[in-house]
Amino acid sequence: MAAADLSQIVKAYDVRGVVPDQWDEGLSELFGAAFVKVTGADAIVVGHDMRPSSPGLSRAFARGAARRGADVTEIGLCSTDQLYFASGSLGLPGAMFTASHNPAQYNGIKLCRAGAAPVGQDTGLAEIRALVEEWSAAGLPATDAPEGTVTQRDVLADYAAHLRALVDLTSMRTLRVVVDAGNGMGGHTVPTVLDGLPVELDRMYFELDGTFPNHEANPLDPKNIVDLQARVRETGADLGIAFDGDADRCFVVDENGDPVSPSAITALVAARELAKSPGSTVIHNCITSWSVPEVVRESGGVPVRTRVGHSFIKEQMAATGAIFGGEHSAHYYFRDFWNADTGMLAALHVLAALGGQEGTLSDLVAKYDRYAASGEINSTVADQAASLAAVKGAYAGRDGVELDELDGLTVTAADWWFNLRASNTEPLLRLNVEARDAATVGTVRDEVLELIGA
């Protein structure tokens, strides 16, 4: 047999592709075996989301791991952060079968070492890919190790208890909360996490359905929160929360149905975490609002800016001992959660903050939402490098302007900044602009888009 070409499905941080066209249960079994060989694990934990292909792919991975001598704990249906909890609390490497918000025909694997430490191209994924490609042609080699066991374990209640122990929820007033699970794993985790709290829960799309019959499970796309916004306004709820497909990201709307920016949530949670651990470091990526480092400093913390992407955030979390990290994409990372991201814990912080006072959410977040922003603008370009170079040339040497290339190109002036980054997977440039007023955002946005020919 010819070796499988995995170049299209093994990404920088995970495995993701169309099933069965690009990968199937046969390859998943090889991934399980390769994961055990590369990590040297004698035991692992495996979980999966609600996609139609997930149970079969997950079982095949477990078979492959067991064939290499590892004992496998299957936790079954779970959110990605629930898998991270299992990896952290059990001290085991883990595999989560999900394609997050991608369409139903996709599936993937998010891998971690014991303690939820990420596995990416530079930390084992390239070696795993090479082994799977080799074994797809030559077959799985024999091993002297006896075959491992495969057992089942339900960790949902333990996961919920752990999260609730990390946030003081004792003084909450009763809140009316609409949650849109998008037919994803939030429908599995939210009822258990919120059980017994002073929350009047209005459930939207809690039925687990990996075909996503109501809308794409990506709350960062405005069209996917329209139903949530309407329900909050119709019912007079205190807030709305939307989760993505694997429920590791959460997005919040206020009592008016207006979106609350992930930067404002990052600042709010940072202030709360710093109140518990004064002087700690907080990580934020280079696209979060100016308000995030400002609030961190005002709260007695140390802000550290990093590149976009969970592997960079987690690296910096570990290197600095940071208590918390946040991204513009609504990923939130916690030291008390093995430096892993959990939207559910961020949601509990929002509930505790709002429920601990009598005001509205819009009033609460106003102090954390200080600037005007464009949101992410994607432009299709023929040559990403040439377009970036043109923009850099236009701003280099301009008085009162600083340039840095930590991640793409960031240009900063006294009253505004923008970041322009190339997509890793598409011929796109992604532009984010922030300024002290909306008019300046428009001016800067239009100038940059003209320079790149958009």
From TrEMBL:
It comes from Streptomyces armeniacus. Transmembrane segments: none annotated. GO terms for molecular function: intramolecular phosphotransferase activity; metal ion binding. Keywords: Isomerase, Magnesium, Metal-binding, Phosphoprotein. It holds the Pfam family PGM_PMM_III. Belongs to the phosphohexose mutase family. This is Phosphomannomutase/phosphoglucomutase. Signal peptide: none annotated. Residues 8-135, 158-257, 265-371 form the Alpha-D-phosphohexomutase alpha/beta/alpha domain. InterPro entries: A-D-PHexomutase_a/b/a-I, A-D-PHexomutase_a/b/a-I/II/III, A-D-PHexomutase_a/b/a-II, A-D-PHexomutase_a/b/a-III, A-D-PHexomutase_C, A-D-PHexomutase_C_sf, Alpha-D-phosphohexomutase_SF. GO terms for biological process: carbohydrate metabolic process. Its cofactor is Mg(2+). NCBIfam families: PRK09542.1. The keyword Magnesium applies. SUPFAM superfamilies: Phosphoglucomutase, C-terminal domain, Phosphoglucomutase, first 3 domains. Residues 376-450 form the Alpha-D-phosphohexomutase C-terminal domain.
